[in-house]
Amino acid sequence: MNCCFTKRILSGVDDSIPVFSLNNYEGYAKITSVYDGDTFKAVIILHGRPLKFTFRTIGYDSAEMKPSLGMRARADHIHLARLARDMFKEECGFDDRAPFRLWNPFMCRNKVNGLVWIECGKNDKYGRPLVTVYRRKGDKQSVNQKMIESGIVNVYDGKKKDSFSLKI
């Protein structure tokens, strides 16, 4: 779009334009990185274009990778965060040590590193899309449910967070 055309369109815009959201989006996503057990980056195809987003899983909270320096049992907290991160990677079939390969149409979709099915909800308070993650489309149990059942993460509804302790 040229500059004048863009300016003309934007001059007529007001606050009635809704904030962009992936709410109700369902589709494949290619995980590119995992921060901790509940936050990851992935690429989706939207309107024919690959776009990368930071996603937050729905229903649970994992320990933080970088808790405050004064936190009691900080090392244990970091250990739990790493356990949750590694379990999430495993459940999603994501190996960030594997070499990057371009996708080709003859690949079995289950063999693509970190290819998952996501179902998006609203955005969290930081603007990240909240998602339910499935290893494959049509799976009965989500990765979210498996994480909760493991006891490594806390059930979380978006309100007050509980402190962490290993429940296994």
UniProtKB/TrEMBL annotation:
InterPro entries: SNase_OB-fold_sf (IPR035437), Staphylococal_nuclease_OB-fold (IPR016071). Residues 107-159 form the TNase-like domain. SUPFAM superfamilies: Staphylococcal nuclease. Transmembrane segments: none annotated. This is TNase-like domain-containing protein.
